[in-house]
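Running this now, will post back.
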Amino acid sequence: MRDSGSLGYIVVEGPIGVGKTTLARRLADSFGSDLILEGADDNPFLERFYENPRAAALQTQLFFLFQRVRQIQTLQQSDMFAPVRVADFLMEKDRLFAELTLDAEEFKLYDQVYQHMAVSGPQPDLVVYLQAPVEVLRKRIAERGRAYERSLDPNYLHRLSESYMAFFHDYNASPLLIVNAAEIDFANKAQDYTLLLDQISKIRSGRHYFNPGPLEL
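Update: finished.
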């Protein structure tokens, strides 16, 4: 188990396919911590959304909202003295997706539900935002082989990446590490992961950037 210092709650975020769940799992293993995953595979509407976004956007988004609220509530009730907790989502990302996928009337309804249900979870001690070009995201999505993701619209992925960039451009609620994940393989290369882990372990405040080139073992 690695010493995390004063990092009690770490969130890994980024667009579909960038590797946030993989990194969250590795961090939880390194720190011997609780792991909180958003569970996209549990959403029964997600496949329908990829096949026909306009027909299934609202139910897909509401399912995710209810799911994330439950997870935040569970997090609030968990042992606050646990060494570290790692999650692969921010609650705020739910609204980011809603703004991207819902039409005006659907968003009004979503917003009413959100305002009624939204829970203020603990503030992360660090947010790790993973970035990669859309072509890299598409390659990684294809490699993981989820059948329902085959119909994912590249334009949607591009707009999602832009939405993430805009969101984190103004983000200052927690210390932030922005990682160029295009050239590193923290899932399979020990040196890549170790360098990133060292960066994460050092940060206690402010905005930071990690932009490594390809690394040789």
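The chain has a mean pLDDT of 88. More later if anyone needs it.
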